[in-house]
Specification:
Blueprint lengths: L2 H7 L11 H10 L3 H9 L5 H14 L2 H11 L8 H14 L1
Helix pairs in contact: 2-3, 2-4, 3-4, 4-5, 4-6
Length: 97
């Protein structure tokens, strides 16, 4: 699946069945369900991809110290750009495998 195909699924009422938890979190985030997205990101806290999404979600929430912790766990630099650009970057990276 590429980013355009992923975006197309956002029109559906349910996420695609084959998404990993990190991508599932990003899908729920775009649906406006931060809590569900957060639950998905927390499901596998040892996974760097989930930690990265977890960081993004806490940054979006405004909890920057918690976000910084999760960026470190993910091995990613602390993001400072626009949230939409970060969502795109994470999604594209995870879809590329």
């Amino acid at each position: 699946m590429d980013i355009d195909e992923f975006r197309a699924t956002l029109q559906d009422v349910a996420p695609p069945a084959n998404l990993g938890m990190a991508l599932l979190a990003l899908w729920w985030d775009r649906q406006g369900d931060w809590e569900r997205a957060h639950e998905c990101a927390q499901a596998n806290e040892s996974d760097p991809a989930s930690a990265w999404v977890h960081a993004y979600l806490h940054r979006k929430e405004g909890d920057l110290s918690n976000a910084a912790y999760w960026y470190r766990r993910a091995g990613q630099p602390v993001a400072t750009g626009k949230l939409d650009a970060e969502w795109e970057s994470i999604t594209e990276t995870l879809l590329a495998g």
